[in-house]
Amino acid sequence: MIVFDFKNYKNYLKKVLDTKGDARGSRSKLAKVLGCQTGFISQVLNGNTHFSLEHCAGISKYIGHDEEEKHFFMLLCQLDKAGSVELREYYLAQIHKILNERKEIKNRIKVINDLNEVDFITYYSQWYFAAIHVLVSIHAFQTKESISKRLNLNIETTNLVLKFLVEKGLIIEDSGKFSVGQSRIHLDRKSPLISKHHTNWKIEAIKSLEKNNHSDLHYSSVVALSKKDAEKIKEVMLKSLVDIEDILRPSPEEEIYSISMDYFTL
Fold first, then answer.
1. Quick check: is 102 in a domain?
2. Given its phi and psi angles, is residue 191 left (phi above 0), alpha (psi -120 to 50 degrees) or beta?
3. Is the pTM value of this prediction over 0.90?
4. What is the DSSP string of 90-150?
5. Total number of domains in the chain
6. End-to-end CA separation in angstroms for the chain
7. How far is Cα 179 from Cα 108, in angstroms, rounded to an integer?
8. pLDDT tens profile 151-184
9. Integer CA distances (angstroms), 25 to 30, 166, 191, 238, in order
10. Beta-carbon neighbour count of residue 167 at 10 Å?
């Protein structure tokens, strides 16, 4: 749910804090954060009273707004709380200015097709950059809330990664929904970042062992064999990677997996 699509903060919060679907229970969680009763939140959203600005700031943090979203949300809150025509006009002017700026694609999506060294370092610094990049190709995980929940990430981290991926053209945002963009990223096997990339996913593989998910597959073994047969096994594994790639290309995006393979001399 994107805050810039709303002109009234209560209507926005009714959507974000819906009592049905994935958002069910969000009002009681927010009440604990704000230190109030759940009924108070419903009373404000459905009545003539308003949240205090302190409450609004807390709500913004709970939802996981980035700085731009927080600023716009706070303006909406202050607009509804304004006690004079002059004050309402002031906040309306600020709101319209932001919305007009967002109409300019270059301001809304800063696409950079050429990723620099710092961009590569950022992308491969943590596993979740690549995970979110891939995850948005699945229809069920194209909002920041669904991404955050699926990958068990806090909303602030999810926002940070989404903003980076959008700015670099790796994903596209449209009305609060994200999809894969035109820009692509490829890490050469000779890159100094390749070890970091592999390490990120090895750590996640270890975490998956701790979850003891029976649908996961892990295999480890230590064997002694001839150098000739060792090469044969390597060829089998390489051929398997090619066969996997042939399956991957036409496969529809339904779930996200990590593929990892190790075979080395001790």
1. yes
2. beta
3. no
4. HHHHHHHHHHHHHHSHHHH----SS--HHHHHHHTTSHHHHHHHHHTTSGGG-SHHHHHHH
5. 1
6. 51
7. 15
8. 999 998 999 999 999 988 899 988 888 998 877 7
9. 9, 30, 46, 48
10. 14
